Amino acid sequence: MEPHVPRTARIALNRPIRRLFDYLLPDHMTLQRGQRVTVPFGRQSATGLVVETDAQPPEGITLKPVRSAAEAWPALPPETFRLLSWASDYYQHPLGECLFTALPPALRRGRPAVEKVEPYWQACGDPALLPGNAKRQKELLAWLKRQPGGAGSKQIVRAGFTQSQIRSLQEKELIRETTPPSTDGATEETRNRIPVLSPAQQEAADQLPSPDDGFTTTLLFGITGSGKTELYLHYLKTHLDDNHQALVLVPEINLTPQTVARFQYYFGSRIAVWHSALKDSERLSTWLRIRNGEPVILIGTRSAVLLPFTNLKTIVVDEEHDSSYKQGEGFRYSGRDTAIYRAHLNNCPVILGSATPSMESYHNALTGKYTLVRLEERAGNAKLPTIKLLDIRSRPLEGGLSRPAISAIEKCLNAGQQALVYVNRRGFAPIMMCFDCGHMVECPRCDTRLTYHRRDRAMRCHHCDFQTAATDHCPKCDSEAFKPVGQGTERSEDVLAAQFPDIPVVRVDRDSTQRKGSIQGILDTVNSGSPCILVGTQMLAKGHDFPNVTLVVVVNADGGLFSVDFRAPEQLIQTLLQVSGRAGRGEKTGEVLVQTCHSDHPLLRSLAVGYYLPVADQLLAERETGQLPPYRAMAILRAESDVMSSSLKLLDDMKSKASDCGIESWGPLPALIARRADRHRAQLIMVSNNRVRLNRQLALLCQDLDLMRLPADVKWAIDVDPLETG
Ligand SMILES: Nc1ncnc2c1ncn2[C@@H]1O[C@H](COP(=O)(O)OP(=O)(O)OP(=O)(O)O)[C@@H](O)[C@H]1O
Ligand SMILES: [Zn+2]
């Protein structure tokens, strides 16, 4: 008789460690890669994901058996599993944490992969049968009769009725439980809607690849207001079959409910959304729809690219240049680049759209790796706005605004139009300073100054969670000459409200949009079309379509001009062109006023011409001279600890290891904000002409780092294709 060979499985756990765990497979159990299991871990149990099933059992160790499989099917189907393994290798992040990112929170915690189905109700009786005093029950019955196909309990409660009213009607058999209307596919009504393209849009549409062509990457360079959304809709409408899935990645979904509404208009209930503000139950429900292969068109932020699609036929990445596609901590993946790899795995097209493409994508388009499709006309009758630089060096300013800027706003409002004022910081002022002793209020835990937030009478650090009460006097010498310096959105809001007391001034920044639904109120004011002033941060630059905004004022353009970060000029020009692009999208031509102290700076002068590609060519030439990305691959090794010397020491050691592996490195240097939340941060920049080689070398480096016995306070992280290098 053959000796009994134990069968084992190699399992990934949701832990930040670069290793997998071996378990015995009980005789009756068969598992597939990507399946969710419960395993014993220490004294407890943990949820794991199967990575390998026929692993060689390690010798001399007694393995514990897998407890149970959560489902009979793999939570991560083969293609999604391959995508995440690739991302784990490419971004040097532990496989377990990468795999778990693709699960909704409920499944990470080991909950069953089933939705709690809420009861769905339909009216079936006559309100006249109710006693006269059952007023609310009568109203509920009448309301329910008006809902085609009935309504779910939650919807009924949201409409102002109670669970006990539902129960009473059920007992009287005036309502009955029913199945909710099917959400598969689009309804007849939406199926026949196809957007009508302008000739310029049609020309661009004709150049887009067909999904039958397999994997292709297209860069759609479409100027602001050219109707890229219309083009995506048309593309999906003409190329997607009824049973196909599609993914549309967007930077920040909750800012643009209009976009979602436009997709729903054409695709009805096929549209699903994915973003960080969803409830756990909503995430599970959408995740299941996608995993079950329903023909969903998902509009989602970064992490949507990791979901377990099984029939994905097209990917669109809107505003592909946006930095929010890169995760800044933990699993530092780029949603855009992962989307391209996913399209490659899937053999389907991916379309990257932007009015201000990233240097990476533009470079790939120039070298022929991507197809470049240009759409350089605004939709409808709209024209691109004119951009004027306004030198403010010797002009008196009121709350940061010059006289000509205020006059322009006045003229715009008098003409019955709307103005948008862009300020690059939230809060009232970035500095509080004593004009007697020169003291500036700093964060006790970071190398930064505290921002004055006047609405909350608080001084806040924008780099850690420190805050303290604001004072009227200098905290050091008690002088009353203690004043705000510089501009924040709150200050501009105050100045404008005082200047234009009869006009609504709406502030849009992270503070003012935190409350749920607040963005909708803001949009309602703007969409009413009557004169108003919008004041806000780059949140206002992102994809909004306000047809009655004809004036954009940039309070200060100089922030990124002299930064040490090599990406700063690119990001500055992108933000300025995007915010400028909000002007004149309707019938009336727009104007942009850019206040600056450096009106002769070449970058700003080329901005004023208004065309992006010549500026991009110039920026690319500079990158080539400096041998920077996209001409070379880059990764950053970051270290932090309780004292700077430990961080630098680790990086110094790693620099020689990197050099042994053949990696060129720059530094180590303290980070731009060297101390953050009392941790001292430093970085080593690594570059290579060969991306594949750099990736292999980084893997070796990670192995070394894992084996090192580091002091407990020293932490390190690798950031591949970093966006922030300061
Ligand atoms: N073919 C068309 N006919 C009429 N109006 C159109 C057409 N295409 C687009 N529009 C309108 O033009 C405006 C701008 O379109 P959209 O918001 O899609 O532009 P965009 O290219 O995404 O701009 P941005 O990059 O600045 O966000 C919208 O109001 C849209 O409804
Ligand atoms: Zn701080």
Automatic annotation (TrEMBL):
One of its GO terms (biological process) is DNA recombination. It catalyses: ATP + H2O = ADP + phosphate + H(+); Couples ATP hydrolysis with the unwinding of duplex DNA by translocating in the 3'-5' direction. Residues 469-637 form the Helicase C-terminal domain. GO terms for molecular function: 3'-5' DNA helicase activity; ATP binding; ATP hydrolysis activity; DNA binding; zinc ion binding. Residues 176-209 are annotated as: Disordered. It comes from the Bacteria. SMART domains: DEXDc (SM00487), HELICc (SM00490). GO terms for cellular component: primosome complex. Its EC number is 5.6.2.4. Its cofactor is Zn(2+). Keywords: ATP-binding, DNA replication, DNA-binding, Helicase, Hydrolase, Isomerase, Metal-binding, Nucleotide-binding, Primosome, Zinc. Zn(2+) 2 binds at residues 443, 446, 461, 464. Coiled coil: none annotated. Binds 2 zinc ions per subunit. Zn(2+) 1 binds at residues 434, 437, 474, 477. Residues 209-375 form the Helicase ATP-binding domain. Initiates the restart of stalled replication forks, which reloads the replicative helicase on sites other than the origin of replication. Recognizes and binds to abandoned replication forks and remodels them to uncover a helicase loading site. Promotes assembly of the primosome at these replication forks. Component of the replication restart primosome. Belongs to the helicase family. PriA subfamily. HAMAP family: PriA. This is Replication restart protein PriA. It comes from Marinobacter algicola DG893.
